[in-house]
Amino acid sequence: MNIKKLREEVLETARRCAQRGPGYSQQRAVLDEVAEKHRKGPYTTLDVHLQQAILTCWHDLFLDRELSWGYDLDNPDAPFFHVPERGN
Fold first, then answer.
1. Is 65 left (phi over 0), alpha (psi -120 to 50) or beta?
2. Residue-wise pLDDT tens for the chain (88 aa)?
3. How far, in Å, CA of 80 to CA of 63, rounded?
4. Non-local CB neighbours of 83 within 8 Å, separated by 6+ positions
5. How far apart are CA 58 and CA 8, in angstroms?
6. In the Cβ-directed half-sphere of 14, how many Cα atoms lie within 13 Å?
7. pLDDT at 8
8. pTM above 0.85, yes or no
């Protein structure tokens, strides 16, 4: 499994979800969408090692300041998140 590629997939999924608004700017929406891409069928579960790799990538995005917790002041904490703007 290519962790760098998986991390980029999680980040791109988070960006797409964040653009849809607060209902999608939540941890569960991102993790479910990434997991769905890796399932081999509708009733299959992911290997625990892949699940943990996805979770690690998700966590690392916050440590690396690619994502921040909270959507707005009414939803300031997890599971809501936003993609910080990186202006000059």
1. left
2. 799 999 999 999 999 999 999 899 999 999 999 999 999 877 788 999 999 999 999 999 999 999 999 999 999 999 999 999 975 4
3. 16
4. 14, 15, 18, 66, 67, 68
5. 10
6. 28
7. 98
8. yes
CA angle 84, 5, 26 (to 5 degrees): 40
3-class secondary structure per residue, the chain: CCHHHHHHHHHHHHHHHHHHCCCCCEHHHHHHHHHHHHCCCCCCCCCHHHHHHHHHHHHHHHHCCCCEECCECCECCCCEEECCCCCC
> How big is the chain by its Cα radius of gyration, in Å?
13
C-alpha 2/C-alpha 4 separation (Å) is 6
> Hey, what are 87's tokens?
């202006």
> What is the largest distance, in Å, between two alpha-carbon atoms of the chain?
47
